[in-house]
Amino acid sequence: MIEVNSLTKRYGAFTAVDDISFSCQPGRVTGFLGPNGAGKTTTMKVLVGLAPATSGEALIGGHRYADIPNPGRHVGVLLDASAQHAGRTGREVLTLAAMEMGLPRTRVDEMLALVSLTPAEAKRRIRNYSLGMRQRLGIAHALLGDPSVLILDEPANGLDPAGIRWMRSLLKEYADRGGSVLLSSHLLNEVELIADELILIGHGRVVAQGDKQTLLEGTHHDVTLVTSLDNTALAAAAEEHGFSVEAAGQGLRIGAATVEVGRLAADKQIVLTDLRSGASGLEDLFLELTSSTQRDDLGGVA
Amino acid sequence: MTTEQIDRPLTLDLSGTPRTPFLRLVRVEWRKMLDTRAGFWLLAITGLMLLLTISLTLLVVTLTDSTVTASGLSEILMLPVSVLIPVFAVLTVTNEWGQRTHMVTFALEPRRLRVIAAKLSAVSGLAVLTIVVAIVLGALGNLMYGVLTGNEVVWDLEASTLAWAVTVQILFFLMGFGLATLLLNTPGAIALFYLFGFILPFMVYAPLLAFFDWARAVLPWVDMNLAGAPLMAGVDLTGRIVEVGLIDYARFGSAVLIWVVIPVTLGSLRVLRAEPR
After folding, report:
1. DSSP string, A229-297
2. Are B11 and A97 in contact (CB < 8 Å)?
3. Do B17 and A74 make contact, defined as CB atoms within 8 angstroms?
4. Taking CA atoms, what residue in B is nearest to A93?
5. Which of A63, A70, A84 sits opposite B20 (nearest CB)?
6. Cα R_g (chain B), whole angstroms
7. Domain boundaries, chain A
8. pTM, 2 dp
9. Does the interface ipTM go beyond 0.90?
């Protein structure tokens, strides 16, 4: 549904986006992941026609965004939740958008209810909104025209854990109904929770893309965090087997898969109180892929 | 990709979606001018100043038993309109940048020229509306003048005078709009507007005109007030009645070029190309 082909965006000598290509499928939430300044926002601005591409193209459903008539009815956009007039009320912002898109005013109430902004909150001016409330309003704004594509820049920013969970279920339902979602984040764990597909971007280049499982399988980090009633004995047993051992908080970090550590403990009859994988998943992968020495070599991981 | 996804369309069907009608864009821009506190108070203060102006004028005229006519009244009432309302022309543009709502505006209507045209239409509509209000108030004031003083009421507001007054008002609105699109910054655009629209003409040009020949030769070509005076009222800089000739139109054209055509053109180009951040 979203097709980005060899997109490059330069500002003078600075290359913000460097020959990136990716696509987003209907029915999937695609996470666009990268540190601050990696080129996520720039890519999204080119996608929605706010900035021209230096070369390459970005298409939504086969069209350039600027060629889509009344685009709010097809593509929901949230680029910056704070980019709303601080003196308008939340309801007024949605009313203006509904007017422009030619929607009935009842749609405004529906959207306010959908994002759990109460009538009292909707009457307040946006300068009194928390970032989380602005994000909810931004989501309502993006969904107002019942679009089939959503483009959201850092939508989970400022949401509390309950808010992130809410957004996950909202976007999941939206995708299950056939919608396409592209959302960006610099917080890897957050996107790991929400997205089905991932595009990792660093220094303006796509360093990896694919579905979450495929990407994670590429990381062979056998690290286990374990706590037992007798850590000393467990450490000795692990070292005996040639695994690396170091203290980590209350327990140990052992350089072996969880199943190995569990087996070890069973053999030695040590009672485990906590056993889990210590691989931090995407974050490790991400740091590995975007570290400046490797980024060029690993361009084709996916 | 799994099989269930293949059935889903990968293209957007745009056949059922007409372009956003231009009038709808104008209505949205109109509402955006007035739905903030700044917009509300600006309009409220303009209304209050109009009422205050007409009351004061009538009071003074009645107490001193002097005479006033319809054209004099409407000229006086045009002042609050010309001072405050052009700020709307500035704010409709600079607010989008200051509050960064341009991202939303241009995402909902990527054809930015249509947005610019909608804003221009909304602002011009407001200009015309406030002028009409000023004229109606002037007419009411004129009637009250007749009642209060017992003097004969003079209806001397000619259509051509009125047309020119409205034209010049709208040109000043457009000047504010042009400066706003050029600077994309509220304080800067308002300061420049007042500097070139009011402060220089009254504080600087007036003494220059009184003392220097070169000022009398040059300023009517660059200042809209000076260039417009002969066309509007048939008088020259010193208030002498003049025959309006081709040169007066040329001067007016030159001033309009400098303060309206060039700023609006360059400013619109800037807006078309600007990348919201």
Report:
1. S-HHHHHHHHHHTT--EEEETTEEEESS-HHHHHHHHHHHTPPEEEEEE---THHHHHHHHHSTTTTTT
2. no
3. yes
4. B32
5. A70
6. 23
7. 2-216, 224-277
8. 0.85
9. no
CATH number for the region A2-216 comes to 3.40.50.300
List phi, psi (to 5°) of A91: -65, -40
Q: How far apart are CA A28 and CA B6, in angstroms?
A: 12
Give me A142's structure tokens. 């993006």
DSSP secondary structure of B221-249: HH-HHHHHHHHHHSB-TTS-B----HHHH
Would you state the structure tokens that stand for residue A6, as one six-digit string? Answer: 């060899």
Q: Is residue A242 pLDDT above 50, yes or no? A: yes
The secondary element (H helix, E strand) that includes residue A205 is strand A205-211
Q: Which residue has the tokens 């042009």?
A: B178
Give me the sign of the Cα torsion angle B238, B244, B247, B250.
positive
Q: Among B124, B209, B130, which residue's Cα sits nearest to residue B175? A: B124
- Of B104, B84, B81, which is closest to residue B32 (Cα–Cα)? B104
Polymer length of chain B: 277
CB atoms A79 and B107 under 8 Å: yes
pLDDT per position as a tens digit, A8-26: 999 999 999 999 999 999 9
